[in-house]
Amino acid sequence: MKSPLDLSTVELSRRGLLVGAGMLTGAAALGFDALSASPASAAGAILWPNGTTTRPAISSPFGQRPKPNQGASSDHKGTDFVGFSIVRAVADGVVVAAGIPGGWEPGGTQVWIQHDGFLTRSLHMVAGSLAVSPNQTVHAGDVIGTMGATGNVTGVHLHLEVVVGGVQIDPVPFLTARVGGTPQPDPVRGVKEFAVRGGSWSAIPVGYNMSNRFTAVNMGSGWGDLYGSFGGHLRYVGVMGGAWTQMDSGLPLDAYSISALNVGQSFPHIFAVENSVLYHIYADGTGWHKASTGLTVPGKISAVLLPGGNVQIVANIGGYMHHITTHNGWEIGNSGIPIGDEFKAVNVGGMLQIVTLLNGVVHLIWPGAGWQLQSTGIGTSGSLTAVDMGGGYPTVITNEGWSVCVTSVSGGGWVRQSTGVAVSGTIDALNIGGGYPTVYAV
Ligand SMILES: [Zn+2]
Fold first, then answer.
1. What is the Å distance from ligand 1's center to 56 Cα?
2. CATH number among 3.40.50.720, 3.40.50.300, 2.70.70.10, 1.10.150.750, domain 57-176
3. Domain ranges (residues) in the chain
4. Rounded to the nearest whole angstrom, what is the distance from the C-alpha of residue 74 to the centroid of ligand 1?
5. How many A from CA of 157 to the centre of ligand 1?
6. CA 402/CA 426 separation, integer angstroms
7. Ligand 1: distance of its center to the CA of 91 in Å?
8. What global pTM score does this model have?
9. Topology at the third CATH level for domain 8-42+185-441
10. Which of 15, 71, 208, 385 is the most exposed place for a label (fewest CB within 10 A)?
11. Counting Cβ atoms within 10 Å, is residue 11 exposed (0-12), middle (13-18) or buried (19+)?
12. In DSSP terms, which residues pair with 329 in a beta bridge?
């Protein structure tokens, strides 16, 4: 990777570009209403690790304690639960580790799951009992393994850790406040902008909330424009008049998946899946509109704009990549190529390329003589996105919970590098200049 640049002057020039930009008056004309306050974060469907809303017995709480045995930590980073056998996921999420991760041998057989806004680690389970594997999507209450005594323990128990922003917190008050909560399809959290600043990667909260099902689009303002739905409406977070702001479009939308494109107009064209229908969302002089494409798409999507105004959309339907085009009205075809739940379609020098996480390994899909699928050989996990930074291949960004990693082609092969900075939640990335991707995390 190139050595990080000092982007301070670049960012200053971006700020100068923004003031007085024509789209600001356009936004007001289209009836955006600024939100007076950010809504409170909503709890998802959360259960105790026994799969119920009744807390299991605790044998050792979080925090300082006498060493239970030689080699055990006296600073207890989790809660030990006893009195049940089948260990279950406490919330919806994606498995990021299953087995004995390197450096975590004292924890025995374990499962790590990235949830919306937090990571859980379940330790000391029975070897061979794990019911999940990396990159698998799980739901609250799903069986993940059997309580055991593997690793450095004094008896059978579940050591459960809850990690928020890279830090282990006390699981009991965290779960107590959330167990039994009404399921929310669109968890809402604070937005962070993650970029190379002053020569190194850092994440900065922008001060506004967004759904974790969001899309970032480069409208040329110098910052990302973020669109997502929560509270039943299409919402916007972006920079206006030199400051981050959040607005409600007023357009009813409860998107399962969303993807925005800059088609050279003041506002992006947005594609969104709502109740398994693919919608085309756009703005004109009278406001925002939502038009059905007539296509049934029960899965995630990622849209891309190719030269000549050619919109193409990639969808994961039943684990296979589907390709949506507009040659004669909206058309959808099954490529027959497997695709993971984490994927991103990218315009790489005018060519559609798709990056996806399959069985914990980054794969590349592209059209050649038929659709081609190739492994990069790079193992990773968590939320995935990709962006064209030049060089003929997409640059892949993954949020592995403990670090954001950048995978790109360097010296003729795929290379994965950790940025050393952790942000929780889902990510999207843009090429806004400066030689490095700008990443947004919710
Ligand atoms: Zn413990």
1. 14
2. 2.70.70.10
3. 8-42+185-441, 57-176
4. 10
5. 8
6. 13
7. 20
8. 0.63
9. Neuraminidase (2.120.10)
10. 71
11. middle
12. 327
